[in-house]
Design a protein that fits this description.
The complex is a heterodimer of chains A (about 220) and B (about 300).
Chain A lengths: L1 E10 L3 E11 L4 E6 L5 H7 L8 E6 L2 E2 L8 H5 L2 E4 L11 H11 L4 H14 L15 H13 L5 E5 L7 H16 L3 E5 L12 E6 L2 E2 L3
Parallel strand pairs in A: 3-8, 3-9, 6-7, 7-8
Antiparallel strand pairs in A: 1-2, 1-4, 4-5, 9-10
Helix pairs in contact in A: 3-4, 3-5, 4-5
Chain B lengths: L1 H20 L1 H36 L3 E6 L5 H13 L3 E7 L1 H17 L10 E6 L4 H12 L4 E6 L2 H42 L1 H9 L4 H44 L11 H26 L5
Antiparallel strand pairs in B: 1-3, 1-4, 2-3
Helix pairs in contact in B: 1-8, 2-6, 2-8, 6-8, 6-9, 8-9
Classes of the chains: A alpha/beta (about 220), B alpha+beta (about 300).
The structure holds adenosine-5'-diphosphate and magnesium ion.
The site of magnesium ion (MG) has 4 residues of chain A, from helix 1.
């Protein structure tokens, strides 16, 4: 369960990115977040893994008040959340396989198990056989798919993706949407910020629209 | 437990990779740290050699107790008993006035004394001490001066005292120098680790987003700092050995001219481990400060 209670976020400089957001997301929901550029989508998503903290109001994730979580507790929160940020945040000086292994090692998986999971995840996003290549050698879409594979390789209970299909051509975009859809079908809570709602239509997602930091419709 | 070992192995591999990834910087740091360590390490080992040499040349430090000629055999026995029971002494021997005179005569000085009818020499005890501390000399001679039958005390500690003071001064100088160079070493590690943190900024941030703990992120840096310290320590050890090798022949020659056999001793296993261990500890200290300063306070 993810609960936003009157959440306001002001960035330094005084810009109000989110303005009194209250909403609840039940476990296993598929939520599609849309809105114009600058509406506050990325900010809202970043509040869940405590990358940003609300200026006022509270954010709860699985019963934990994330908005006041201690520094020590944050890693354990994040291990349960798969993240695909707008900037892919790959390790560009490391081969594909190392990018995949990092979250598994952080989670304490033994090497064999980690290798097995990494291979399966890469297979799912169509990057099998590319293990030794470097991200710089991948196309924009392939980098995006790598970032997605890295996000779900740990089998998190919450999957958050910020415009994950933005740099993909339509064939891959629907395939990626399919991956999110099937994870959701398996019980994972999925939150996707996207301009392309139609991609997710077949899973009948819940739609949330932001406009200048305010909730428009649910 | 197994996973803990695995995580350390991984951090170790990462640290090695980062060291090898910039061989010039690694070499430079190792040299700087090595040279900074060579001075105190070499200094201590040289001092050790000098102290050992001094002990060899002076033999055992001694005190001579010259007895009053009027002292009776009871007093002499009492003194003997005192000496036997004192744990601060390692040995003593009695030199009777007759023995002393014979010794003097056989040394060729007999002619000078030939005209004297009575033996002017006193009975004496020659006492050897355990240790060469000037304070021990002072305390013992003060005590012995008060014993009945003792007329005069002669220390051959004057030069021992001077040498001890000189060695002490040298040791203090080395200590101050070591502390200063130790600080320099910590600063060197602090800075290289700071640069490492800057270089690895992206990997650190990504790891954080993926749920890495502070411990996980710090671990490779501690290995990095420790390994760099170890490299510095090894350079210092090598430099000390080369120094001793170079000095050995000329020093032996100097000794030869005085008829003394001088063999310079290099650092043994214990000293070697201490030098490298100290370098690692200083590397860790620099890393700890750097990590605290540069990794902290970032979510
Ligand atoms: N780190 C930041 N510092 C200051 N302003 C920011 C920061 N991040 C986002 N903003 C501002 O907050 C508003 C919302 O941004 P964002 O959440 O990225 O919107 P969206 O993802 O919907 O495009 C924008 O006007 C943006 O300029
Ligand atoms: Mg955005």
């Amino acid at each position: 369960m993810i609960i936003f209670d009157s959440v306001t976020k002001l960035y330094p400089g005084g810009y109000t990115a989110l303005d009194g957001i209250s909403l609840q997301i039940a476990p296993g929901e598929l939520v599609v977040l849309s809105g114009h550029t600058g509406a506050g989508k990325s900010t809202l998503l970043k509040l869940i893994p405590a990358i940003e903290r609300p200026t006022s109001g509270t954010v709860q994730v699985n019963g934990q008040n994330v908005s006041s979580l201690s520094r020590r507790a944050i890693p354990y929160l994040r291990r349960n959340i798969g993240l695909v940020l707008q900037e892919t945040r790959l390790l560009f000086d490391r081969p594909v396989i190392d990018n995949m292994l990092l979250p598994l090692v952080i989670n304490g998986h033994p090497p064999k198990e980690a290798a097995r999971r990494a291979a399966a995840a890469l297979d799912l996003v169509g990057l099998s056989g590319r293990e030794k290549e470097f991200p710089a050698g991948l196309s924009g879409g392939e980098q995006q798919r790598l970032a997605i594979a890295r996000a779900f390789v740990n089998r998190p209970s919450i999957l958050i993706a910020d415009e994950p299909t933005a740099s993909l051509d339509s064939a891959y975009a629907s395939e990626i949407a399919g991956i999110f859809g099937s994870f959701n079908s398996a019980g994972v809570t999925v939150l996707v910020a996207t301009h392309d709602i139609s991609l997710f239509r077949q899973w009948s997602p819940r739609r949330i629209v932001l406009d200048h930091g305010r909730l428009m419709e649910q | 437990m197994l996973n803990w070992i695995y995580l350390h192995l991984r951090a170790f591999a990462l640290a090695l990779e980062r060291l090898a990834g910039q061989p010039f910087g690694t070499l430079l740091s190792a040299l700087v740290m090595g040279i900074a360590l060579t001075l105190p390490a070499g200094g201590y080992i040289l001092l050790d050699n000098v102290a050992m040499l001094a002990r060899g040349v002076s033999g055992k430090p001694e005190i001579s107790l010259f007895l009053d000629n009027k002292a009776d055999s009871g007093q002499i026995d009492a003194i003997r008993q005192n000496l036997r029971e004192d744990p601060r002494l390692s040995a003593f021997r009695f030199v009777s006035r007759d023995e002393a005179l014979k010794h003097l005569e056989s040394s060729g000085l007999g002619d000078v004394l030939g005209g004297i009818a009575t033996n002017p020499l006193p009975n004496a005890f020659i006492v050897t001490l355990r240790g060469d501390k000037p304070e021990l000399f002072a305390a013992l001679s003060e005590e012995m001066r008060g014993w009945p039958g003792v007329e005069h005390i002669q220390l051959d500690s004057a030069w021992v005292k001077r040498l001890a003071a000189l060695l002490e001064l040298a040791r203090m100088t080395m200590l101050v120098l070591s502390v200063l160079l130790g600080v320099a070493l910590v600063i060197v590690t602090f800075n290289t680790v700071r640069l490492q943190i800057l270089t690895q900024k992206n990997e650190i941030e990504v790891s954080r987003l993926l749920g890495a703990t502070d411990r996980f992120i710090r671990r490779p840096f501690y290995w990095f700092g420790g390994l760099q310290g170890a490299l510095g320590g090894l350079v210092a050890l090598g430099a000390v050995w080369i120094g001793i090798d170079t000095l050995a022949a000329p020093v032996a020659k100097v000794g030869e001219t005085y008829g003394v056999l001088i063999v310079l001793a290099g650092p043994g296993w214990r000293e070697s481990l201490m030098i490298v261990g100290l370098a690692i500890a200083l590397g860790w200290l620099g890393t700890a400060i750097s990590v605290r300063r540069h990794l902290w306070g970032r979510p």
